[in-house]
Amino acid sequence: MFFNLKKEIYNYLPFNEQEKVDKEVILNLLETEDNLLSRENKICHFTASSWIVNKDKTKVLMIHHNIYNSWSWTGGHADNEENLLEVSIKEAKEETGLKSISPILEEIYSIEILTVDGHMKNNQYVSSHLHLNVTYLLEADEENPLYIKPDENSGVQWFELKDIEKVSNEENMKVIYRKLNKKLESFCEG
């Protein structure tokens, strides 16, 4: 179990110091923790997120997340699926209503360990924990229809790259979104 995911993370080249440190911690957790692909591990578990851009790579598709009351990226829990690229695409489709989303890169675009404060979900309390998050760079046609997923979000919208930090209410996520945009800029230049 975890062979492919562990290999992907091991081979991933960190973009900055945050990714370097988080990669080391995640690799250590893969050796020491059980059930990292399942929410049964109440301390930490894997999630997959998407940085969905338009064809020109000038806009990012965001959802207005119900729990955090903020515009944010799409994503969700691994729920025992080791192929986190598939998880990111599945979640992106579910949360935006898009029928067609394609990976720009098959490999990991970004990694981060995210803190999740305790909250209520489906009338049950979820304790504070960590998401061992893997992000993928995806592309979609901004002309395609979008639909909300009422149990998770109250809006789906394309934003100019420069506006992402303005529309997010989560200070800790603004740092991540800034990093993702810098990586996108580097990717487009390269």
Automatic annotation (TrEMBL):
The answer on whether this UniProt entry bears the keyword Hydrolase reads yes
Name the UniProt key words of this record, in alphabetical order: Hydrolase
Q: Which GO terms describe its molecular function?
A: hydrolase activity
Q: Does the keyword Isomerase apply?
A: no
Pfam families the UniProt entry points to: NUDIX
Residues forming the Nudix hydrolase domain are 43-183
Q: Which InterPro entries match?
A: NUDIX_hydrolase-like_dom_sf, NUDIX_hydrolase_dom
Protein name stated in the entry: NUDIX hydrolase
The organism named in the record is Candidatus Cetobacterium colombiensis
